[in-house]
Amino acid sequence: MTSHDVVVVGAGLAGLAAAIRLRERGHHPLVLERSDGPGGRVRTDEVDGFLLDRGFQILLKAYPTAQDMLDYDDLHLRSFDAGSMVRIDDRFHRVADPFRSPGDAFGTMRAPVGSVKDKRTILKFRNRIRKPDVEDLFVAKETTALQRLRDEGFSEKIIDRFLRPLFSGIALDPELSFSSRSLEFIFRMLSEDDAAVPAAGMGQIPRQLAERIPADAIRYDAEVTEVGEHHVVVDGSRIESGAVIVATDAVDAARLTGGEVGDPGTNAVTTWWFAADEAPLKRPLIVLNGTGSGPVNNLAVLSQVSPGYSPDDRSLVAVSTPSIGVEEAAVRANLTEWYGPVIADWTTLRVDAIERAQPRQNVGEDPDQSVRLASGLFVAGDHRQHASINGALVSGCRAADAVAARLCRDC
């Protein structure tokens, strides 16, 4: 039997953030991770020389806690162009934020995603949610994302053609039933800065965080089967600790804590990774399906954003739908409607069907759920905050601060 002052279960972003914060407070946590590396859902694998993230993922550079905890220069972030390409009526149309992409303002005004009134409503909405502090967005009056958009005055046309596929790709909720607070937070982040990826893949984010923790303080391939207020059991061995932070997803946290952690449910995503001899679009943009038909929700050419995603002059294309169980034949048929028979020549590199891609952001849940379960047992994860990279980091820091305060009282 061994002992540590704090044990953190999980080396995802929340667990890594908690460990870093604890070390800043003078503690020496041990991080236990059942997989072979850090990151949780945020991982990157090399397949035939291509860099494939585990599902299509982006970092919104405006995330406040990400700005505090990550070294953006070290990540060599590569940005998407502001806005999107939207597929409507057998054509692609450019829709951009005129404040951040003024050169696309004329095309945006002409795009048939909604009326002139709708586009003015976007600007009014943008201006309103940029005024309060970010924290105030999470205590504002709450409803569903869909109802908030309707209350703001958006027509069903712009909701279905642009806003639904946009937020479906981020929140993985095509019904837009998630919290309006999260909707406003996401919209604000998009309005303030770029969506980006590290030059060498999203896995560079947890890599950077893990490098701030001594190598002997993280154990990989370590399966935790039991947690208590002051101990964990890992690979059959008991480890005593002053406190335990369970920093897994909600499903595993509920299992490990015997239901003490509530499971809000999860949203799924499937991403198809294709190698194409020629890129289907030339700009680093996200393509949205505004037609209302077909399984594809969004498409991006990652090698247009960061050439390092591809080993040669071929293009790496990520195609996603916020569900699992969709047949690849249906995806290829949808893409053929967009780009023609060249789709038959695209090579499938991998299909990521991720059932637990993101915790649901249900209306009525406390945006700052308690991170303390018992005297020495704590919990962290984006399911305790809001479903995003920023939420995971915030939650990890909150759990670490609560543990540090508790240990200080006991010292």
Form type: globular
Give the radius of gyration. 22 Å
Total count of strands: 19
User: Quick check: average pLDDT?
Assistant: 94
What's the quaternary structure here?
Answer: single chain
The biggest sheet, with number of strands, parallel, antiparallel or mixed sense and barrel status, is: 7 strands, mixed
User: Strand percentage, roughly?
Assistant: 15-25%
Approximate helicity band: 25-40%
Report the total helices. 14
Distance between the termini: 22 Å
Low-confidence parts? none
Structural class: alpha/beta
Task: Output the keywords.
seven-stranded mixed β-sheet, 19 strands, 411 residues, alpha/beta, 14 helices, 33% helix
Describe it for me?
This protein has 14 helices and 19 strands. It is of the alpha/beta class and 411 residues long. Strands 1, 2, 10, 11, 12, 13 and 19 form a seven-stranded mixed sheet that branches. A seven-stranded mixed sheet has the order 8-7-15-16-17-14-18, sandwiched between helices. A three-stranded antiparallel sheet has the order 5-9-6. β11 and β12 form a beta hairpin. The chain is globular, with a radius of gyration of 22 Å. The two termini are 22 Å apart. 49% of the residues are buried. The model has no long low-confidence stretch (mean pLDDT 94).
